[in-house]
Amino acid sequence: MRLQWTSVVRALALLFCFVSLSNALTTEGSTIEEPETIDLLTDAKDMRQAMSGWGTNENTLINILTHRTYNNRLKITQLYRETYSKSLWEDIKSETSNHFRTTLKGLVLPEARFLAEEMRNAMSGWGTNEDTLLLCLMLTVNDYDTVQGLKDYYKAIYNTDLEDEIKGETDSPFKDFLVEVLDRPKFNESAEVDNEAVEADFSDIKEFLAAKEVKDIVYLVTSRSLKHLAILQEKYYQSEGSELYQALESITDHHMKDGFVSLMSVATDFTRYCAYELQNAMDGDGTEEGVLTRIITTRADKDLADIKEMYFEMFNKKLSQQIKDDTSGDYRKTLLSLVN
């Protein structure tokens, strides 16, 4: 009886998370282009048909999911369950594979749940993928509601706190950095920055750098708004003639270095950060498909158009062409359709 009640509680928790996070809006920077006329129930039926019988019509799945906004994709998922008493994601999971499957997962699940599961996968089995943990948190660092949803989903699905999992799977000071980012308060990024506070932080951070007090720096940079950090970096550059992130790099290594540089980059220009991460994922031998999937699926409804422009500006080539060169099959089709 206890197991049954636990299952009910977890199911209700998941439903609450879904409802509370299903009102996200597609913004002007989106690359999603919907047809003028859509019927979401017909979409749900077409997707069911595409996965019925022998074989799967992958093109139907791609054409529908990459041409519906975030809210409409969640509505299709709801209609699918109401019509067939089945989970759209579970059906997709059974009919697809590899990176194509993960990309569709990112399109049919709420963003917070998708990233929660990505973080879980990064900490499952032997070893921990710290880069995945960092990327997931950087993609949501200025989205307080999504971060709260991410933590709620993690607790509901895995019956443990995300913060505790991070503490058990990573080491200080990187562990402290991830936890502090996860628990950042909600900031009003449109508010004016207190210049006196910036001056005080500038003085403190110089002292911390000189003493190599990494934990003190972690607390300082994770407890400030992104706008505050951007002004602090500018202040540091004007005074010292070098970048703050370079100074932070000099006293840290590996994951902690990546953490500081990522947060400073996000604070300065989130679009540039994403463009760089995409290029880094496709540069050299091999491709980090997980990075492509997480950035493209979570930003397609928000600012992927801006990221595309920044990518071209930074690397003098189209993002779509680089994706075409580095991926294949239905996975490539899906990413290219999202990039538009």
What does this structure look like?
- Helices cover 72% and strands 0% of the residues.
- By secondary structure, the chain is mainly α.
- The longest helix is centred in the first third of the chain and has 19 residues, at 2-20.
What labels would you give this structure?
340 residues; mainly alpha; 21 helices; 72% helix; globular
Task: Set out the fold topology.
Layout: H1 2-20, H2 40-50, H3 58-65, H4 70-84, H5 88-95, H6 98-108, H7 111-122, H8 130-139, H9 144-158, H10 162-169, H11 174-182, H12 195-211, H13 214-222, H14 226-240, H15 244-250, H16 254-268, H17 270-282, H18 289-299, H19 304-315, H20 319-326, H21 329-339
The number of distinct β-strands equals 0
Low-confidence stretches: 1-13, 19-23
Order of helices and strands: HHHHHHHHHHHHHHHHHHHHH
- Tally of alpha and pi helices: 21
Tell me the fraction of residues in β-strands, as a range.
under 5%
Question: How would you concisely characterize the structure shown here?
Answer:
This protein has helices at residues 2-20, 40-50, 58-65, 70-84, 88-95, 98-108, 111-122, 130-139, 144-158, 162-169, 174-182, 195-211, 214-222, 226-240, 244-250, 254-268, 270-282, 289-299, 304-315, 319-326, 329-339.
